[in-house]
Amino acid sequence: MSGAAEDYSQPVLPGSAASDYERYLRTDELLALQKTDAEWVHRDELLFQVVHQSSELWLKLCWNDVAEAARLVRAEDVGGALRLLRRATLCLRFVTQQLDMLEQMSPWEYQEIRKVLGHGSGFDSPGFFELRRALPELGEAFHAAREGAGLTLRDLYVHAREHELLYQLAEALIELDEWAQTWRIRHYRVVARVIGDSVVGTQGTPVEVLGRLVQKVSFPELWQVRNELTALSQSTS
Question: What is the dihedral angle through the alpha carbons of 69, 71, 75, 81, rounded to the nearest 10 degrees?
């Protein structure tokens, strides 16, 4: 006789949650990470925590993919690195778009939430800290590959179609850099819209300082080479 049919309504993974979906994703723990309504000073604390906690999850995926992409470039698997860098860039696009939600808070009502943030600041984001650490490693791996091919950065762009994968890698780096900068710019504008641009933030840093940081990029040489290419084109026309 055949064995009894498996009961798919019953979870098989370890844990106490009602379903394997909940056990695998640890939804009990995940959904307990936000303040309860009894703890809110304002109900928009839920919005504020959800936006920032989900951003940290996307940033965790982002910097892990960037770090692995750097390893793949060093291992001469540029194609594999490109796949992960496309995902990392999407992560930055997602966290940038999520900032729209913060503009749905009333600037006056947000002042109540701000009182319970302590010295909390986006400057302390562990995800963005890890990303800032991973990006230089990616840049070093890229430049090692470029130099191994005997190319200057300018020559890589001028003769791009002869070195398609390296060119695509260079463009993946600058797109990632662009979205990291876009996230900073968008974050600054949200902060300015919600609390103003001439005040001091929760960590004692003037918001105007945050505004000056938006010009920071991780791969300045990739931006500078555009100027060189324009000058080269004009000199040969």
Answer: 0
Measured between alpha carbons, how far is 176 from 160 in angstroms, rounded to an integer? 19
Its pTM stands at 0.91
Give dist(CA 175, CA 159) in Å, integer: 20
Distance CA 139, CA 78 (A): 13
In angstroms, rounded to a whole number, what is the distance separating the alpha carbons of residues 33 and 50? 9
Instruction: Give the DSSP H/E element, type plus range, for residue 170.
Output: helix 164-195
Ordered per-residue pLDDT tens for the chain, 237 residues: 455 678 888 999 999 999 999 999 999 999 999 999 999 999 999 999 999 999 999 999 999 999 999 999 999 999 999 999 999 999 999 999 999 999 999 999 999 999 999 988 877 899 999 999 999 999 999 999 999 999 999 999 999 999 999 999 999 999 999 999 999 999 989 999 998 888 866 656 666 666 677 788 999 999 999 999 999 999 886
